[in-house]
Specification:
The complex is a heterodimer of chains A (183) and B (162).
Chain A lengths: L1 H23 L4 E5 L5 E6 L24 E2 L5 E8 L9 E13 L5 E2 L4 E5 L7 E2 L6 E5 H4 L5 E11 L10 E10 L2
Antiparallel strand pairs in A: 2-4, 3-10, 4-10, 5-6, 5-9, 5-11, 7-8, 7-10
Chain B lengths: L1 H16 L5 E3 L9 E5 L1 E2 L10 H4 L1 E14 L7 E7 L5 E3 L6 E5 L7 E4 L3 E8 L4 E13 L3 E7 L2 E6 L1
Antiparallel strand pairs in B: 1-12, 3-4, 4-10, 5-9, 5-12, 6-11, 7-8, 7-10
Classes of the chains: A mainly beta (183), B mainly beta (162).
C-alpha cells in the first residue's frame, strides 16, 4: 500500500515536471554568441603613429671604456592589451625586430650592433633583456603574463648603451619595431 | 524504487518554492518570435586606455523590438502584478551573477534591469486585455571572463493576483 502511494506520488511529480517543461519550451530565448570580436593592442611610448626616441650622449673620453651609458631621454612605456572571452581566449606573443634598421652613422656607413643596447623593466612584467639583432626576438607571450582572456599590461623600459668598443665619432640612428601578434 | 520516489519529492518541493506564493507563470508562446541569436561585442570599443579592469572586460549585446505577448486571458478584470525573472544559472556563464539584463519598453510595462536569479515587477494594475503585448529593447551585459560558452537566456513572466 505504501509502495502504491509512492508510485502515485511519483507519477504526479513527473506529470507536474512534464507540464512545467512544456510551458518552459514556450519561453522566448536569447542566444548570445560567445565570440566577441577579439582585440589586441600595443602601445610603445607616446603611441599612435609617433616613433618614440631613445637618446644616448657620450663624451669622447668615455668612448669604449666599458662603462654603460644610461639613456638621456628617460624610460619608454610599453602597453600590451588583449580582449577576448574565456570561451575563445586569444594568445599573443611580443617580439622585437632589431635587425632591419641598424644603428648607422648618419655621415658614413659605420654601424653599431643593436646588441650594445639593453633595457631594464620597472615592473619586470616585460622581462629585461638585450637586443639580439634578429627580426623576431621573443620577449614575452600572453600566457606567461596572465591566465585572463582579457588584460592590459603596462611597464616602463629604461635603455642602456654597453659602450664596450671604440666607435667612429658621429651621430648614429636606428630603430627597433615591437610586434604584438596572435598566431 | 524507494530512492527514486524520494528524489522526485525533493525536486517537487524545490520547484514549488522557486515561485513566490500565489504567482502563476504566464505563457508567452503567442509572441511572434521565440528565438533571438545575437552577438556579443565590447561595451567600450574605441578608447580603452582609461578603462579599469571591469570596463575592459565588459561585453554587451542588444535585441531590439522584442515583441512579447503574454496570455493574460484567465485574469481579465482582476488586479495583478506581472513580474519578469531570470533563472539563477545562465547556461554558458561561469558566474551567472556577472550578467545583467536591462530593457526599455513602449510604456505598458516598466523599464528596468535584472540580474540572474532575481525578479522585477513590470506591471501593476487591472488586467484589461486577454493578451498583453509589449515591445522590449533588451540589453545584456556580462564580464568576458565569465563567458565560457554560448549564453542562453530565457526570461520568465509570472503574475500575482491581488
Amino acid at each position: 500500500m505504501q509502495k502504491r502511494h509512492s508510485q502515485g506520488l511519483l507519477t504526479a511529480v513527473l506529470a507536474g515536471l512534464l507540464l512545467w517543461s512544456a510551458v518552459a519550451d514556450a519561453d522566448i530565448r536569447f542566444n548570445l554568441k560567445d565570440k566577441a570580436p577579439p582585440e589586441i593592442k600595443i602601445r610603445v611610448g607616446s603611441g599612435g603613429n609617433n616613433t618614440s626616441t631613445v637618446s644616448f650622449t657620450l663624451d669622447p673620453g668615455q668612448l669604449g671604456n666599458g662603462t654603460p651609458i644610461a639613456s638621456s631621454s628617460g624610460p619608454i612605456r610599453i602597453q600590451l592589451e588583449i580582449r577576448s572571452t574565456a570561451a575563445n581566449p586569444l594568445a599573443c606573443t611580443l617580439t622585437v625586430d632589431s635587425l632591419s634598421d641598424p644603428l648607422k652613422n648618419t655621415a658614413s656607413s659605420t654601424t653599431i650592433p643593436f646588441s650594445e643596447i639593453s633595457w631594464t623593466a620597472d615592473e619586470e612584467l616585460i622581462p629585461s633583456g638585450i637586443f639580439q639583432e634578429t627580426m623576431d626576438q621573443y620577449i614575452i607571450d600572453s600566457q606567461s603574463l596572465t591566465n585572463n582572456p582579457t588584460f592590459r599590461v603596462r611597464d616602463r623600459l629604461t635603455f642602456s648603451y654597453a659602450n664596450s668598443s671604440m666607435i667612429e665619432a658621429g651621430s648614429y640612428e636606428g630603430g627597433v619595431v615591437y610586434t604584438w601578434a596572435a598566431p | 524504487m524507494g530512492r527514486t520516489v524520494r528524489a522526485g519529492c525533493l525536486l517537487l518541493v524545490i520547484t514549488l518554492v522557486s515561485l513566490p506564493l500565489h504567482a502563476e507563470r504566464l505563457d508567452d508562446s503567442l509572441s511572434p518570435r521565440q528565438q533571438f541569436d545575437i552577438d556579443l561585442d565590447w561595451k567600450d570599443q574605441y578608447s580603452t586606455e582609461t578603462l579599469d579592469t571591469r570596463e575592459l572586460n565588459a561585453l554587451i549585446a542588444r535585441a531590439q523590438h522584442v515583441e512579447v505577448r503574454l496570455n493574460t486571458a484567465p485574469y481579465v478584470g482582476q488586479r495583478g502584478r506581472i513580474f519578469i525573472s531570470l533563472p539563477l544559472n545562465i547556461r554558458g556563464a561561469a558566474d551567472s551573477s556577472a550578467l545583467r539584463m536591462s530593457w526599455t519598453t513602449n510604456g505598458l510595462f516598466a523599464s528596468g534591469s535584472l540580474t540572474a536569479g532575481n525578479r522585477v515587477k513590470l506591471f501593476e494594475g487591472k488586467i484589461m486585455e486577454p493578451v498583453m503585448t509589449e515591445i522590449f529593447d533588451m540589453t545584456f551585459e556580462i564580464d568576458a571572463r565569465q563567458v565560457f560558452n554560448d549564453l542562453r537566456l530565457e526570461p520568465v513572466y509570472d503574475i500575482e493576483i491581488f
